Fold each of these.
Amino acid sequence: MSKTSDAVVIGFDLGHGETAVSWAHTGKNSVPNVIDLKGRGGRQHVTAVATLPPDTVLVGEDAVWARDVGELYLAFKSPHVDREEVRRPVQLFVGKIRQDIDEMRTVPAAKRVEWVFGAPSGWDRDVMSAYAQVLADAVAGSVTVVPESRAALLYARDAGEVRVDMDRLLGSVLVTDLGSSTTDFTAVIGRSARPFDYGTRLGAHLIDKSILDRVVERHHERDRLEEALDDTTERLKLELRCRQAKEQFFRTDPERFLRDAREMVVVTHPVFDAGGRTLVVIELSGADMEEVLDTPQRALGERSWRQAYRDDLVQAAEEMRVEPDVVLLTGGASRMRFVQEITTDVFGDDRVLLGAEPEVAIARGLALAGRTSIRAEGFRKDVRKLLAGNRIESLIADRLPALTDEIGKAAADGITDRHIVGVMRRWRRREIRTLNDVAAEVATALHDELTDPDNPTIAKVVVAWQNDLLPDINELTRPVCERWHVPPTSMALSPIRLSGSKDWQISVDVGPATSMLTGIAATVGVAVAGVLAMTLFGGGVAIIATTGPLGVIIAFVAGIWALFVGMEAAKEKVREVNLPVMVREMRGEDKLVEKLREKAAVNEAALAISLGRQFAADDNGDILRQLNQLVAKELDRLAEEAELLIS
């Protein structure tokens, strides 16, 4: 971990309405620290930037309330990063905050600094790539842009503010990120994230606008105020004050509004025009807020914000097609009590999760995403190093003789009763001409048997051998897992089980193990069948002729021929001759079978050894290479999944 232990990740949650920043050290497991930014914003800045001649840049509320500014931008986050009115404020804002962080020295110095920004899940790869380039120019450093839904999951998992089982987070999760400009609904099932785009119009700023409209409608100088608000800057500033009044309302104990209908939040704000200023008083009682939340919104198809949120939440639940294990609320707007109440009403209290500080959840999650990515980078590098070395191959090579021996035993075991006896009876009845033809029929039957996909003979051998090998392979990956804080079980190759039934079915714990077994079994099965055929047909036919079950008959017949042509010649010649019936029937069928079975154990054991040796000799390293490739492929797949477990 040495190359990543001195790295710092800065999680930058640049929001449409508010911005928060956090940092994390890759060498530590502590929760990311939220940075108190310069100016009046503190832990969370209003997303605003202004310029003062000649070259001063202000951000947050300092930018909003400054007088005589050259430029003022508010709420400028947008996927249209190719436009100057988006790109310029983004770079001014981010560049200023980067400068402030450097000057404050809040973040410790490190050899490597990674900036991680979030983007709505609905942004496509091209937009995110263009956004990353704009941001990289602003921070003059390395930038990664990740979906905010991923940041939310990592925040829930690692920040310690949400109590939830890992199994639930790795199941089906509906991430609901309520921001100022949008509400993003993202279904995350396992590793796959799918955003729903219909919540994008449902920004909390629409509530601010409704409050602003009520304030203007009730103002005693309505006409003058409306004229003053024709100035976009003045309107944005008043809307910001309405947002702050809303936030103050939802931070207040709701019992206060229930106990006294006259209880209200009061915020004042001056609006300037050519004639001076107009004082605006923003008042929000419990009844006022109920009316605001039930006000039809043109942007929402004349639905109220409250109704639109419920509708979109229900639609998201339907389109997930699976019941979510967790509904995770993030974003500052999730503090609004009615949001929590609606979500709980739709999904149930036991599934809805909300952290202690949802307004900085994404910032912390982004820092965690960066730390996870850097650690995953080191983890994958170590796994690749392990796979590129010869430790796994050597381990397999050391165990390969045991596999070939067991394959030989599996092929030879019971061959007498399964194949030899029946074929010899047919030979005795002259249905088969020569003993070489006997060997050919046995070889063909055995080949068909071993290559039959429904026959588990080879599979059982491979399963037992592989499961005996797995603990040693898993021990090789354990140090890598421990080094990168990954549960060792996540890199453990899954054992394979064979369950017995009438037709013997192969039962496998997990999908990848199936392909592994299939690959090994197919290679072994074909190779063994080929070796058997060569052994029984070719030069290796002497194995059966001298030591196998056929040796009894061959030796008997050869004894007669030996009187004329000699023993060795008799052995060779008799295999090619269509012997007459009287010779074939010199021994009764029952006696023939009895003699074959009497020698079966010894002959089959000798055949097993010969087949195992022949198989090992003819392999040429193919099985070793295939096994090594299969193990490497499976470990690489597990490493990809294990990245999710890195914290």
Note: Residues 498-567 have pLDDT under 50 and may be disordered.
Amino acid sequence: MIKQWFKSGSPWIWLNAAAVSTCLILVVGLLALIVFRGALHFWPSNVAEFIYMEDGRKQTVIGEVVDTSSTTALMARASGHAMADDADLLVQHLIKIGNRDLTGMDFRWILDRNIQSRQYPDDILVIERREWGNFYGYPVALKQEGQVIAEGPQVFPVVSERLRDALSVYKQIQRLEKKEIGAVNYGLERLRLKQRRLELNEQWDEAAKQLLAAERGEYERQYREYQTELQALYKTINRNSLVVKASDGREVDMPLAKLVRIYRPNTMSVWAKTGHYFEKIAEFLLDDPREANTEGGIFPAIFGTVMMVIIMSVIVTPLGVIAAIYMREYAKQGFTTRLIRIAVNNLAGVPSIVYGVFGLGFFVYILGGNIDQLFFPEAAPAPVFGTPGLLWASITLALLTLPVVIVSTEEGLSRIPKSIREGSLALGATKAETLWRTVLPMASPAMMTGLILAVARAAGEVAPLMLVGVVKLAPSLPLDGNFPFLHLDRKFMHLGFHIYDVGFQSPNVEAARPLVYATSLLLVVVIVGLNLSAVAIRNHLREKYRALEG
């Protein structure tokens, strides 16, 4: 019976089904973990005040309970903890205490057995800062130009209103510094390069000097106006400061200009926490990062990922389709064609880091260096295209995903019946017309399948991008309001590299861990969104040309 069962092939079917089911369960479990940890990161937790005994001294610890760990008595004794004879477990709590500028750390472990009391006072403030992370403490006073204007219970409502005004002023400062003054600096740099180009071409005469001097004078006038406006805004935003008392009794005077958000989680209702939750998600999606990428948002990484995938798709799709059309429709089927197909299939198995090394050596140093010498000699010795950037990253990933598009397109072309081609030719159409009006539309779903696979792989790649364009923090986006608007020579941020950087290069591991889950969740959402868009287009094309296939 068993021998016949094996001969029937049923065991291998069940084995394959078990393997597929196991993989599916693991993938779903991983996605569930990412969703749970990533989404929970933004929910405001209550802040506790612990009376804690350590080395015979009583101290106050304020913070959020992030994690709880239970260790067996045997392992606890091996780690150096004193344990009672009847004790079974050692329970520890990981507390986010913040106040890194005072304590030197954001997190600390405390023993549950040493906690004498735990309470959740209503007046504890959580203060999100632009530097040094969160601050936990009690409000003492609000000052305006050094004079106390509110104390005690009156501080929170007054400081909340003043902080809203400070944030509005901060946005104006950011607009002036990044957009207006940034445009002036960009214009001055273009004038400098233009002058250098004229000098190299021996065209730097009196007329050119006067023309550039007039343009430079206009930029300098605009710069002085912006600086005057900026000084007034800085004077306004630095007017107020908040005095807060930490858990150890020290008082800290913090200017409102350096604060992002103030709230009292212990008094917030479920609706208030829900509003705070969505506000934090919006900040995560739309703001720039801060605190070594462990705080703030990741909009530049989202933008860079999507921009790179779009440019890569624009490059790889026509190249892959043209190569597949030539090999299937025009090339003579023989040894050379088979060799090319083998080479294309083998390219799909080359490690991605090899493509990165090739992109760095050929695209960046050779191609980019020669472009700089031919078209941008005035920028020397600073490179323009002779350095990693968005263009070279997109081309490298296009080369990496090219075999996928070629194979998918060629398979789509091979499935089109020969009778359709013959019928078109019999009606008087040329081979090119047959290809353009009949064959390619019917093969378009297969092309979209190749593009879907290419996008899915490219959006998640990290290793080659580290060599050809991705950076930890990009000072400006590749797309802005300065001519030529799309700056393909600029470096950019990427979600995959952001996960690697925050998860493995961050100096603050505990603060970075929840952000890794949140960014991973976002990367999955971006990839799924791009794929669903391509799938919708493919299905539309498939339905459109289904009658031709019949």
Note: The two ends are 46 Å apart (CA to CA).
